[in-house]
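$ run holo --ligand "fe (ii) ion" --emit tokens
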Amino acid sequence: MPAPTPFSLPPLPYAEDALSPVISANTLSFHYGKHHKTYVETLNKLIKGTEYESSSLEAIIADTAGNADKAPIFNNAAQTWNHTFYWNCLKKNGGGKPTGSLGQKIESDLGGYDNFKKELTTACVSQFGSGWGWLVSTGGKLKIVKTANAEVPLVNGQTPLLTVDVWEHAYYLDYQNRRADYVEAVIDKLLNWGFAEQNLANA
Ligand code: FE2
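-- output --
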């Protein structure tokens, strides 16, 4: 009997046109339906018959991080995790200034919402090549970080709260080379602060 396929592509938390016009249905169709799907399928192929076949995604990421021999497994596992996380970081009519405990922590740890936006935008725009900009919690404090390619802050002991995908596939169909315009629109109109609150509560 063939082994069950360990990982499946989780459903998008909204319709493919829900984030339009900030992120078009065309971009989501390729980004979710092709890129994310391929990461999941490639991961399943790579771990078939290995020690990772029945591991959690987080355990695979932790075990393969920094191991050059296992880079293909790490990259596909981390990209599977990153994209599922990213979809949940976005919602229709999101963005703007958060309230509640997260809003207060942004004031105390990051110097306020305007500075948060400036730091996250800088992290996203200055990431050379492909990668991710993140709001994380580390040592009880909020921090903005960026990672390259598939790298995920989990492996540095940081708890991701929000992320923005800055691979070209995330914005090129809608914004071409204007990464800064994509990042600003996502921060202003799509960030899902409720999801970030949940992640902070679980940190
Ligand atoms: Fe992506």
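-- notes --
The chain has two domains: 25-88, 100-201.
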